[in-house]
Amino acid sequence: MIRVYANLEALSHAAAELFAAEARQAVQAHGRFAVALAGGSTPRRTYQLLSQEPLCERVPWQNTHVFWGDERCVPADDPRNNARMAHHTLLDIVPVPSEHVHPMICNSSPQETAVEYEALLHGFFTSGRSQFDLVLLGLGENGHTASLFPGTSVLKEQHRWVAEVYVAEEGLHRLTLTAAAINQAALVVFLVSGSDKAPILRNVLKEAQDPRIIPAQLIKPVDGGLLWLVDRDAARLLRLRKE
Ligand code: 6PG
Description:
Elements: E1 2-5, H1 8-30, E2 33-37, H2 44-51, E3 64-68, E4 70-72, H3 82-91, H4 110-124, E5 134-137, E6 162-167, E7 172-177, H5 179-182, E8 187-192, H6 198-205, E9 225-231
Parallel strand pairs: 1-9, 2-3, 2-5, 5-8, 8-9
Antiparallel strand pairs: 4-7, 6-7
Helix pairs in contact: 1-2, 2-3
The structure holds 6-phosphogluconic acid.
């Protein structure tokens, strides 16, 4: 399902409301809320709104468990670090227990860190399925999501939940949840804003599927929901029917 908002501000309000609603529902249903956060700039405002009233008090932070969809292997204080952004905008402000916050920390090699993070997830999701209640994702202009980049071998990964990937243009490694792990979620929500995203958004959503070129097309939750929250600029090339 695709929902179009007037601008990033409206989209962010909707995303933050949805986060709070999903969190309450998950805690009511099974006592905890497991979320994987997105990096990039689009979710920044959503995180800010969640850190403020009225939304902050609507999230059951004591029962919330925070993971990441991907991370760059850079020091924790590097501005490119996804966990740093989420800490500054949200996690340092709200009463989420620090032991419930699980950043991907590249202390060892990227390969070892991926194995460690996957082991952490297996310890958390004891059902053997990576059943996040909510996975937030962004969309890159080249069709990547999380750190699933076009043409990389991680796209074929069927079994691992976390993998390392070398991004040549950046000259650094990243860690990412695999599509197999993301697709076990109860709900996956893409946040897409801005006119620059319009061509790729149209290409992701059009019929022809080629996930090697457009990795975001790999995201198809097995039993869960898939929701696109986009702003009008990003949606300008879509032909949408009014509901
Ligand atoms: C990251 C994420 C990436 C991001 C998209 C969209 O950059 O950390 O890995 O998948 O969500 O590139 O980024 P923007 O929100 O900045 O457009």
